[in-house]
Design a protein that fits this description.
The complex is a heterodimer of chains A (323) and B (240). Chain A is an all-alpha fold and 323 residues long. Chain A is 78% helix and 0% strand. Chain A has two domains: 30-238, no CATH class; 239-323, no CATH class. Classes of the chains: A mainly alpha (323), B alpha/beta (240).
Chain lengths: 323, 240
């Protein structure tokens, strides 16, 4: 029984984790903690999408916070200017992000590789704050966009919690299915050996555009949920801190491993909140934590999990021999 | 002819890597391609398989002009190739390595799984199906590369120095496999090889490249008695 449970400890862990998240608001339901959970849902999705692009497709994109901000801004502006339903605006925001990113990053990226895609996507995201401050009448400039309507009138924290939890589950399912589809196979093939993948019939351009379109759509939609939850957004979203934190989530979780970015998001989002107790030392301590994980487990938390797995398998083998 | 190159040339800047190469491979034959280092063998492969286009000339495969098409389009038409430096998808299992070829190789049918299983069984790789490609030895890596090509259901298979780095026993096994694929599947094979003995042994016809140009083409006996080939491979006798 014990041994059987050990073999499935990862599955059991996921089920326990999800059950805990699902039941938390009903059992305890502290509004502040629920807020942190909602941020975790959002950032876990952003980081997982980023991981799909960078870890699986091997496209060195550094602009994902920009894709997120376009979706958030587009949705907020549409909702305020035209009074459309936030749900429609979120979808439009996702599409806006998809179109912008595919046109301005995806298509040029077809002719670039490695570090040059990193530069291009970083410049893309970095140009957004300037564009935002130059278009004050629409975007609110440096002050940002305020009083963005919530998803529906009189929404409670509890409702927001479950809506964003649903978003989290749906998005992760899409990402998981993509990774295990033939498209995901093509990504990994291109990443591992570009020339052999092409020689076996993988259409590099098509797959690259597909992954850019999908990741920017999903990231943009997540941006929409974020902005309608918080009610405002400003160019500080595009500052260095959220960018570094999202990268840290991927690194800590394990780049190119599926639930890795989610685990990274747990540590970063909750660690970041918890370390507010440390005041100005917060980022330094977070940095030290990241260094420690990278030093001992360069493959991130997923490598730590592999390590536990290996230990358990050995233990099982030893028991089988002795009995 | 299943594959023809007509006056194919390739320049890299001022270096003429290929000069007016004419090649004609008949359906069902094993065609050998040899030549000293730097003769342009791999460049010819890359030009045919669409890694880069030729500077001049046409390439005809199965009646279609494929000059300048992308590598994946050429694969879809039924031409698969292996690489001199063994390429596999290191982080994927052997099964998934074959799945890449079976899924993207240009088949529209849904028999992907059957084709993977057939290729696995054909090359005796069933025991390795779950092994990650990065953990394989050189010979098995080469077999996986070959199996992924077979899973595309190709009509023409191009092997770039498949015997390099193998032991005598492995060379014999590999050549036996090449013959078997050619005989049982009717797959045409175009093969580069440095080990001239092995190449003569397996090929129906040979072509010798030297400094980017064809110096001789024909059956193995004729080629090995050709004075130009002897000169290129053994040096000029009268200089001694």
């Amino acid at each position: 029984m014990m041994i059987a449970a050990m073999a499935h400890w990862k599955k059991i862990g996921i089920i326990l984790g999800l059950t805990f998240i699902a039941l938390y608001p009903l059992v305890h339901g502290d509004t502040y903690v629920m807020h942190i959970f909602i941020l975790f849902f959002i950032w876990a999705v952003v980081a997982s999408n980023w991981n799909l692009l960078m870890g699986y497709a091997g496209i060195f994109s550094l602009g994902n916070i920009g894709y997120f901000a376009i979706g958030a801004y587009a949705s907020g502006i549409l909702c305020k200017a035209f009074g459309w339903s936030p749900w429609v605006c979120i979808l439009m925001g996702g599409l806006a992000s998809m179109v912008c990113v595919t046109l301005f990053v995806g298509l040029p990226a077809l002719r670039l590789s490695g570090i040059y895609i990193a530069l291009l996507s970083l410049i893309f995201a970095d140009s957004l704050p300037t564009i935002l401050t130059q278009t004050r009448s629409i975007t609110g400039g440096a002050m940002g966009l305020h009083d963005i309507p919530p998803l529906f009138e009189g929404i409670t924290r509890l409702q927001s919690y479950y809506i964003n939890f649903a978003l989290f589950l749906v998005m992760l399912t899409i990402i998981y299915r993509t990774i295990h589809s033939s498209t995901g196979l093509a990504f990994v093939a291109l990443r591992d050996s570009r020339s052999f993948a092409k020689a076996l019939g993988v259409n590099e351009y098509k797959e690259k555009i597909k992954v850019f379109a999908l990741v920017s759509l999903l990231t943009g939609i997540t941006g929409g949920f974020y902005v309608h939850y918080l009610g405002d957004i400003s160019p500080t979203t595009l500052a260095i801190e959220p960018f570094l934190l999202a990268i840290a989530m991927m690194e800590m979780g394990g780049i190119g491993r599926f639930p890795g970015a989610v685990l990274g998001a747990v540590i970063i989002v909750f660690g970041n909140e918890f370390l507010r107790l440390a005041g100005t030392l917060r980022l330094a301590l977070l940095g030290a934590l990241i260094c420690a994980i990278i030093l001992f487990f360069p493959g991130g938390l997923m490598q730590f999990i592999d390590w536990i797995d290996l230990r358990l398998t050995r233990l099982k083998a030893r028991r089988a021999i002795s009995s | 002819m299943i594959l023809e190159t007509r006056n194919v040339s390739k320049d890299f800047g001022k270096l003429a890597a290929l000069v007016d190469v004419d090649l004609a491979v008949a359906p069902g034959e094993i065609f050998g391609l040899a030549g000293p280092n730097g003769a342009g063998k791999s460049t010819l492969f890359n030009v045919i398989a669409g890694t880069f286009p030729p500077t001049a000339g046409r390439i005809i495969f199965a009646g279609k002009d494929i000059t300048g098409l992308g590598a994946h389009r050429i694969c879809h038409l039924g031409l698969a190739r292996t690489f001199q430096i063994p390429q596999t998808f290191a982080s994927l299992s052997v099964y998934d390595n074959l799945r890449v070829g079976a899924t993207f190789g240009g088949h529209s049918d849904r028999r992907i799984r059957t084709r993977i299983e057939e290729s696995l069984a054909y090359l005796d790789l069933t025991a390795f199906r779950a092994t990650r490609a990065r953990n394989l030895d050189l010979y098995t890596t080469k077999l996986v590369m070959l199996a992924a090509c077979l899973a595309t259901g190709c009509k023409l298979l191009m092997l770039d120095e498949p015997l390099a780095g193998l032991s005598m026993l492995e060379i014999n096994n590999f050549l036996e496999l090449v013959r078997k694929i050619n005989r049982e599947h009717g797959t045409t094979i175009l093969m580069i090889e440095h080990i001239l003995d092995s190449l003569m042994d397996v090929s129906h016809r040979l072509l010798i490249l030297h400094n980017g140009a064809v110096i001789c083409t024909g059956d193995p006996q004729g080629v090995c008695s050709d004075p130009k080939v002897i000169e290129v491979y053994l040096g000029e006798g009268e200089d001694e």
